[in-house]
Design brief:
- The protein has 211 residues and is α+β, with helices and mostly antiparallel strands.
- It has four helices and eleven strands.
- Strands 4-8-7-6-9 form a five-stranded antiparallel sheet.
- A hairpin with a 2-residue loop joins strand 1 and strand 2.
- Helix 2 runs antiparallel to helix 3.
- The protein is globular and about 50 Å long.
């Protein structure tokens, strides 16, 4: 495990904010109580063992659908409106769904929990990426989409990943459901020193028939 570095597409994220499409957790939904326990217990287990991690506060937990790699201040309101319209059209055929989160894994730069199944998440990414390409061009599509996950903590120094994983395997519950009924366009700020991601909510786009 080593210190996490935020990226703008494939390059280091030096400064400024970037627009993203995120999946957020509705903590008012009782279906997510188990997820809250899983994240809290996993992070506390490593903190108690003095691992160098910065836990993600519950309000900032998210799954990244896509990053728009063009700096946010260069994207005008007309382009943002078109982007939202394009995404809204594309996700209208994707109904709300539930994925399983977990187990929490000790990763190279922190702690993550993979998702299952992930075909609907891939469909959301395709919808967002196609909308960005139509609206802003290929240069804004530099984010590398991989195995979908929820990051629970960022590392700020080197540590033994194997030792962390041995502790995380003991955490129960090890899995938790996440219900998804919307994608959110957000304006994201990364703090490389504090190892935090925060954002301003811009637009919520419901899936399918979700309100």
């Amino acid at each position: 495990m080593r210190a996490f570095n935020f990226k703008q597409g494939k390059a280091p994220w030096e400064s400024g904010t970037l627009l993203h499409w995120y999946l957020q957790v509705d903590w008012k939904d009782p279906r997510h109580d188990t997820l809250a326990q899983l994240v809290t217990d996993s992070n506390q287990t490593l903190l108690d063992a003095a691992f160098p991690i910065t836990p993600v506060e519950h309000c900032w937990l998210h799954i990244t659908v896509d990053q728009i790699s063009k700096p946010a201040h260069l994207i005008g309101q007309a382009e943002r409106d078109k982007l939202v319209a394009e995404v809204s059209h594309r996700v209208a055929t994707i109904e709300p769904f539930t994925v399983m989160i977990g187990s929490v894994l000790s990763y190279s730069t922190g702690c993550i929990a993979d998702t299952h199944p992930d075909h609907q998440l891939a469909a959301l990414h395709a919808a967002a990426r196609d909308a960005t390409r139509v609206t802003l061009g290929d240069a804004a599509c530099q984010y590398e989409f991989g195995i979908q996950h929820l990051t629970t903590a960022y590392a700020y120094a080197e540590a033994d990943s194997d030792a962390a994983q041995r502790l995380l395997r003991r955490v129960r519950p090890s899995h938790a459901p996440l219900h998804i009924n919307a994608v959110h366009l957000v304006d994201v700020t990364a703090d490389p020193q504090a190892k935090t991601i925060t954002w301003e909510d811009l637009t919520r786009v419901p899936l399918g028939t979700a309100l």
